[in-house]
Amino acid sequence: MAISAPASAQEAVGDWQGTLDVGGTKLRLVIHVQTGTNGKLTGTLDSLDQSSFGIPLGDVSLEGDRLTIAVPSLSGSYAGQWDEGTKGWRGFWSQGGASLPLALAPGGPPPEEPRAPEPLPANWQVPPNEKIEAAIAARIAPRDGQGLVVGVLEPSGRRIVSGGPASGEPFDGDTLFEIGSISKVFTALLLADMANKGEVSLDDPAEKYLPEGASMPARGGKKITLADLATHTSGLPRLPYNMPFADPADPYADYTEAMMLEFLAGYELPRDIGEQWEYSNLGFGLLGYLLGRAAGADYATLLRERITGPLDMDDTAIMLTAEQQARFAPGHDMYLQPAKPWHIPALAGAGAIRSTANDMLKFAAAVLDTDSPIRRAMETTLTVRRKTGEPRGEQALGWQVAQIGPGREVIMHGGGTGGYRSHLAIEPPTGRVVVALANSGAEPSTADLAMHLLVGSSVAPTPAVAEAPAAPASRSEVQLPAEELDRVAGRYDFGPGVVFRIWREGNTLRAQREGSITGPVLTIHAEAPLRFFWRAVDAQVVFTTDDASGEVTGAVFTQSGQSLPGRKLD
Predict the structure, then answer these.
(1) Which one, of 166, 177, 61, lies nearest residue 436 by Cα?
(2) 369 and 414 within one domain
(3) pTM of the model
(4) What's the pLDDT score for residue 516?
(5) 244 and 393 both lie in a single domain
(6) What CA–CA distance (Å, rounded) separates 544 from 234?
(7) Given a cut of 50, is residue 179 above it in pLDDT?
(8) Are 92 and 29 in contact (CB under 8 A)?
(9) 498 and 381 in one domain?
(10) Measured in whole angstroms, how far is the alpha carbon of residue 72 from the centre of its chain?
């Protein structure tokens, strides 16, 4: 039901619309805010151009002329200031460490825009190969260098349909891709297998399997369990705040076991364990690490001995042989520029696996086979269900479960690394499976295509590839004395929703974005007194001073060419 536009200034309840500019791609958003039964503000978000509707809002707060909104399932947030001139909000959408301007005007979507997903077609059948080929061709047509492989499994058999890339060897069912977060399903199966064999318990405290002297955060007398980690309900953040990001193109490569243990020892949970679903790569990476310690083997060995070996999935691994490397698709980023493969040593259970469409169909067949070596573990993964906040979604152990109609559910997981996208979707009662693998980070990618082929949902339009931003200027770091670092330490307000805390640790300056969803702790490097830059992102900050006293009073923060002046807070 549509909610009318607000009648008075600074009234949050109503429909608000705005457009995000993401690297040249326009994304229209509509935010619906209403008062819940408990009197608190609540609501949903629609992303019209991504055909995503009803995404639940988390905390919605209106304090004076300032509106803040959290969207936990996207790890995103909005903070805006009331603009009397436009009778709307001006502020920033924050997600993945980036902040983008977003103005919200009163009103809902245009009349021609749907407010809810269209009903799925009755008696849908997975299309024939020529139609799949056409869908692949439409998706990769504007994307030079991208190829896409689709695997289909039905009771009548299996098939592979592929397209691209425009140059080089054509992709097929044996082309290797990074499958990213689909790795989490394998990690959850390892947990279920070990629990079924009595090697661990789902209710075991995670700290039980840490090295001696290490510790886990706890809250309210409750400890994080292995099941909490496997259902994204531990309270741990999406990423640890002490990642060094020495190479932003390979962001996990330098994150070590010691860093992870250091973070866990010092982290304070922001809410009770089990209270809220929040997707956590850290949580699943930690789970894989703990299972390895419990079994006395590393994650890669566990994966091979308990899943890929018994299922003859010879092309599913973390480290590739020379022969496999020759079949590894070259990755591309969202701008279709070459992207590095990712290396995830400490958090491998979150997303380190590479595989092929043929191997993923072997895996899916085993998921459906009542006599397969993983069947008992598979059943265990689906016995645990926790709410995600999505109206039609649940979180099992590893698997995401979507209710697509009365008595119909799809179990699935997607994956994304710097240069790859993947999606695996299974509808168990029909025995149908679709897996889609692509070698670029351009969106939309594989999720909408896989779900369309499986159940007939709509396919998002494929926009032209955005122009890549100019490469950041080369910067040289200088060493400053501790007093120069202390001089700029403090909290800086750059406008609605953009507050940074900056502090010194030894000879290093750290910075962290604050807010309803905080950002990672990153190092900022000096190139001169009062001038600093980030290596993990294309961002700089120049501190400003009082002419008379020389005291630091503010700063100018610049990211990807956009500058924001800010003031130092007391």
Answers:
(1) 177
(2) yes
(3) 0.77
(4) 45
(5) yes
(6) 41
(7) yes
(8) no
(9) no
(10) 11
Tokens of 482: 């501790």
> Residue 150's domain is classified under what CATH number?
3.40.710.10
Closest to 317 (Cα-Cα) out of 307, 330, 332, 331: 307
The DSSP line for 1-68 is: ---PPPSSTT---EEEEEEEEETTEEEEEEEEEEE-TTSSEEEEEEEGGGTEEEEEP--EEEETTEEE
DSSP helix/strand/coil, 189: helix
Query: Among residues 204, 304, 289, 291, which one has the least CA distance to residue 255?
Result: 289
Same domain membership, residue 334 and residue 259: yes
Domain endpoint, select from 71, 106, 141: 106
Which residues constitute the domain of residue 156? 129-455
Q: Could you tell me how many residues make up the chain?
A: 570
Does 388 share its domain with 528?
Answer: no
pLDDT above 90 as % of the chain: 61
The answer to whether the beta carbons of residues 388 and 277 sit under 8 Å apart is yes
Q: How far apart are the first and last CA of the chain?
A: 45
What pLDDT does 115 receive? 46
- Give the DSSP letter of residue 512: E
Phi, psi (deg, nearest 5) at residue 291 = -65, -40
- Residue 291's closest CA among 192, 438, 377? 192
Q: Are 74 and 164 found together in one domain?
A: no
CB contact at 8 A, 55 and 46: yes
Say whether 357 sits in a helix, a strand or coil. Answer: helix
Q: Alpha-carbon distance 251 to 69, whole Å?
A: 28
pLDDT, average across residues 16-37: 80
pLDDT band at 8 (very low <50, low <70, confident <90, very high): very low
Phi, then psi, of 87 in degrees rounded to 5: 55, 40
**386-439 pLDDT, tens per residue?**
998 777 889 999 999 999 888 899 999 999 999 999 999 999 999 999 999 999
The string of pLDDT tens digits covering residues 76-133 is: 788 888 888 788 888 888 775 567 788 898 876 554 444 455 688 989 999 999 999 9
**φ, ψ dihedrals at 14, nearest 5°:** 145, -170
DSSP one-letter string for 435-499: EEEESB--SS-SHHHHHHHHH-------PPPPPPPPPPPP-------HHHHHHH-EEEE-STT-E
Domain co-membership, 554 together with 428: no
493 and 529 housed in the same domain: yes
Cα gap 265→221, rounded to integer Å: 16
Comparing C-alpha atoms, which of 466, 382, 380, 450 is closest to residue 414?
450
User: Which residue in the block uniquely carries the two structure tokens 């002329």?
Assistant: 65
Cα distances (angstroms) measured from residue 458 to each of 170, 414, 447, 453, 552: 27, 17, 11, 9, 54
Q: How many domains does the chain have?
A: 3
Place of tokens 């995103």: 76
